[in-house]
Amino acid sequence: MATPISVDQLSPKKTNKILVRRVRPDRSQQVRQTVQWLFVALNAWIGLQFYLWVRYYERGGVGFMFLGRPALKAGCPLPAS
Predict the structure, then answer these.
(1) Would 71 disulfide with which of 45, 46, 54, 62, CB 3.0-4.6 Å?
(2) Distance CA 71, CA 47 (A)
(3) What is the C-alpha to C-alpha distance for residues 14 and 25, in angstroms, rounded to an integer?
(4) Contact 56, 64 (CB under 8 A)
(5) Contact yes or no for 66/52 (Cβ under 8 A)
(6) How far is Cα 9 from Cα 41, in angstroms, rounded to an integer?
(7) CA–CA separation, 63 vs 54, rounded Å?
(8) In whole angstroms, what is the distance from residue 24 CA to residue 19 CA?
(9) What is the secondary structure of 33-58 as a DSSP string?
């Protein structure tokens, strides 16, 4: 027959963590936010280029156009023209 085990024996013992103080101020959140805003700016630029590319062909080749299909050449499996 199995011996009964109390809940105290099953739960791990809690140990206090050692407090570590940083010498320099933490700038990780500032770096993270800067990188995120750079990605927003990059996506806005790529979106503008794509919009102008689409509008150029919708108007029958009249208007302002960037050379080639912007951003699609880098990540889309469509054949480049």
Answers:
(1) 46
(2) 9
(3) 30
(4) yes
(5) yes
(6) 56
(7) 11
(8) 15
(9) HHHHHHHHHHHHHHHHHHHHHHHHHH
Q: How confident is the model at residue 79 (pLDDT cuts 50, 70, 90)?
A: low
Sequence-distant (6+) residues with CB within 8 A of 68 are: 80, 81
The residue with tokens 């990059």 is 42
Q: Which residue has the tokens 């889309």?
A: 76
Q: What is the pLDDT of residues 12-54, one digit of tens each?
A: 777 888 888 888 888 999 999 999 999 999 999 989 888 888 8
Q: Residue type at 49? A: Q
Query: What was the pLDDT predicted at 14?
Result: 76
The answer to whether residue 77 scores a pLDDT higher than 70 is: no
